[in-house]
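pasting for ref. prot 1 ->
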Amino acid sequence: MASHKRISFQVVRDEVKRRIESRIWPQGSLLPTETQLAEEFNCARATVNRALRELADQGFVERKRKSGTRVTKEPQRQAKLEISLARQAVEKQNSVYRYSLVERNIVYSPGWLASQLDVEPNARILQVVCMHYADNRPFQLEERWINIETVPEVEHADLNVRGPNEWLLHAAPFTEAEISFSAISADGRLAEFMGTTTGTSMIQLERTTWKDGQPITFARMTHHPSYCIRSRY
């Protein structure tokens, strides 16, 4: 087997950036696919993926699943938002963290989840509901649906001590994610979990993740009313 010189993601990133700035790839143009760029640079597709992710973070390109990567038409300054594990967020505020598994079931994906994850109808899904506490006060309710076909080992994983988010980050780290935030009013079920009253305003985060194009999980995290999100330019 022929040996190849290893190309770093920085080399790929800087060359793609140079082509954008020199208008070889003008604003709004579609870049070659990751596979095509990997062949051109004689490197792994993962190397190209990381280079393009950095350029997306810097505002040079826009990446969309199934639509490819395009040069940004109107570059904007990007704010970096760090999404911490519940354990990290609790310990960062100098509180004692506690985790509790509430429910764990194997289900067949309902229509809304099949659409969200882009899986076959009635795909086998591990559904998990768990609570995260700060000093024994409700901090976050986590509801998660994991695609067993992509991560088959999760079906028998021990999630009694470590939460599904932590387990997935070690066993099946994602390569792509889509995140949305919403302001919601607590219904009776949420109010009971979070130790508050019906109608209380809360922040809810929804996140879908993929690994090399294969859907991993859809998660819905609802936070206590005191939760605050910060970002930095």
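and prot 2 ->
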Amino acid sequence: MKPNKQGQIVKFHTPLEGENPEQLYVVIEVIEDDERPRADIQALNTGLAFPPINTVRLNDLEVVEVSTQDLIGHYVTINKSDYSQVDGKVISVNEQKINLDLTNGINGVETNVYLTVVDKNGKEHLGTLNVNPE
């Protein structure tokens, strides 16, 4: 599937020789243009404090599913349906793999990843993963 909005996780469907075919990017902006639709993307997990943003042809990218299993056991913040936030240890994920969507929120980056966490008092909470910039 071709990306169509910011916050999607993508990779090149046909990487150039010598490039890592598994390198993932986040779509910063989709630039719709009848002649040359393109996207601004930023590489993930580069180790750089400020990874560069590159503009590439939209047709060269494909949306990828990411595994949510790696979140189990980590301490995270979730957004609950009542708009409150809870910190806790992830005990389960709703879906094993997901087409991840990221959106700038008031208190960090909001996602479409549904998790169950246990807070410090042992109470379970269901909500979506929130990534706090710190």
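The chain has a mean pLDDT of 91.
Residues 22 and 72 are 22 Å apart (CA to CA).
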